[in-house]
Amino acid sequence: MTINHHPSDETLMRMATGTLSAGPALVVSVHIEGCAVCRNRMANFEAIGGAILDEMPPVPLAADLFGRTMERLEAAQPLQARDRPTIKHPELGLKLPRAMQDCEVGPWKWLGPGFQWSKVKIAGNPDAKVMLLKGRAGLHLPAHGHTGLEFMQILSGSLSDERGQYFPGDLDEAGDDVDHRPVVGQESDCICLAALEGDTRLHGLLGRLLRPIVGF
Amino acid sequence: MNEARQKEVPPSPEELTSLIDAVAREQDRNAFARLFGYFAPRVKSFLMRSGLADFAAEEVTQEVMIAVWRKASYFDPGKAGASTWVFTIARNQRIDRLRRTQSRTTDHLLDPSDEPDMPPSGEDITITAEREEGVRKALATLPSEQATIVRLSFFAEKPHAEIARELGIPLGTVKSRVRLALNRLRALLDNDI
Questions:
Q1: Is B55 contained in some domain?
Q2: Nearest-angstrom CA–CA distance, A196 and A150
């Protein structure tokens, strides 16, 4: 599978530095899980972090820090493998990526004719603006723009807009300069994972549609 | 004058890797002490540079070193160099701390990415070593104002606005320097498949 749309360098760098907010970081994680090119790019940025750590001027530590750390190690419980309840969402009709295994995913809810959404809750970040969207084949989504970055990873089906066509594995990163009107491909329903950064809001009909229900 | 205290030669990347390996295989305390001696003062320095106060930075440093001990067997030299691995632990611990007010601590749990799938091949280890060397060369090759921007991006929580304030330059200049630096890095590190 060829992936044609990737997160920007800037987004990957922010992911590597830990400054990308939880919602977008989840969408990017899902992308990286399926994209060898971005795994490699991400590894480069993390290696820059390692290089910077190496060049940090060492600072003094409390004299007893090592001793206290050893004491805590004695007392520590052995590491446990993460409980991995297989997330079963038969009604969602899709296999969730591993990156979403700690998320709470709600049932599909009506958003408009042929258009549904499902709330995605990230552990520790209940306020992150992230959701699954499902549109039926051929659906025209309302035209919209955003006040900040919108991240969208295609999980199944396809979407297209004025800028291109997006297939499973593709990530679309749309900034405030993008006004678009996505259309679902004719071949099947489309499911995507979408997140907005920080206090980004959608404008246009989609914003008016989503805001009261989703709180975006 | 402190003649008694010799200037210790920092361990090489290969030594750091074998120290982590010794912790993983034998829970070797001497190896851990050397890792602690190298990493703890640098992790604390990094965290303070990222805005944590002395006390908080030391607390998080302790968490980082505990994670190094406990996750040592999950370190995969085919995926990351030793310092890069410790950097990602420090980054995650810092995020955890910022979120801790609302979430349970995940300290005792393993990240999905921790799980070793296969033993690293010699080829993976070579690729990783080349990557580590490549980024160091690239950082050294970048024009200094671009290298500065990249370094600062790894410290600041709100990169652009804070960097602009710190350097006393307009936000637009920061943005264009970040873009230039990233394009340059991409060209220098273009080892894509």
A1: yes
A2: 5
The pLDDT tens digits of the residues spanning A81-130 come to 655 555 556 567 778 899 998 888 988 999 889 999 999 999 888 888 89
Instruction: Give B58 to chain A, closest Cα distance, Å.
Output: 7
Place of tokens 């995926």: B79
- Closest-CA residue to A136 (of A193, A188, A71, A93): A188
Supply the pTM of this predicted model: 0.89
> Tens of pLDDT along B90-149?
999 988 887 764 444 444 444 545 555 567 788 889 999 999 999 999 999 999 999 999
CATH number at residue A93: 2.60.120.10
Domain enclosing residue B37, as ranges: 13-116
B171 in reach of chain A (CB within 8 A): no
Please judge whether A61 and B139 are an interchain contact, meaning their C-beta atoms are less than 8 angstroms apart: no
Residue type, B49: R
Domain for residue B125, yes or no?
A: no
Give one word for B24, left, alpha or beta, with left for phi > 0 and alpha for psi -120 to 50: alpha
Q: What percent of chain B has pLDDT over 70?
A: 82
> Does the CB of B48 have a partner CB in chain A at under 8 Å?
yes
